[in-house]
Specification:
The protein is mostly helical. The protein has a domain at 1-77. Helices cover 76% and strands 0% of the residues. It has 3 helices and no strands. It has helices at residues 4-80, 107-110, 112-129. The model is unreliable at 106-111 (pLDDT under 50).
Amino acid sequence: MPGFQELVVLFVIGLLILGPERLPRVAAQIGRWVGKARRTANQLRYQLEREITLADMEEKNKTNREKEKKKQKEETKEEESPGPTGAGEAPPESRQAEPAPGHPDDQQAQAPEVVESAAAVQSADEDKKA
C-alpha cells in the first residue's frame, strides 16, 4: 500500500499527464475497477470458504455413516454368532424370567410406548455424542 508521499507524487504526475478535465473521470473509473476487483475477490473468498465447509460436513457425514454401518455389522454378527451355551440359545445373563402379573417390573409390558420413547431419547443422546 503506497504511503501519503507516493500518492501525492502519483496525483501530480496524473494531473500533468491527463490534465484537470480528464483526471477526475479517470480517477473515478479506476475507483470503480478497484471496487469491482474487491467485490470479486470477496465473492471468491466466500465461495471457497463455503465449499470447504461443505466438504468438511460431507466428510463428517461420511465418517458417521461408516461408523453406523460398522456398528450395525457388529450387532448383526453378535446376533448371528452362537453363544457359549450353544446355537440359538441366549446366554444365561440375557435370559430373564417373565415378571408375575402386577409385579413392578410388569409396568414395562403395560406401557410399551414409554419404553419406545426412552429408547428414542437414549438413541438421540448417543447421536449427539457421536
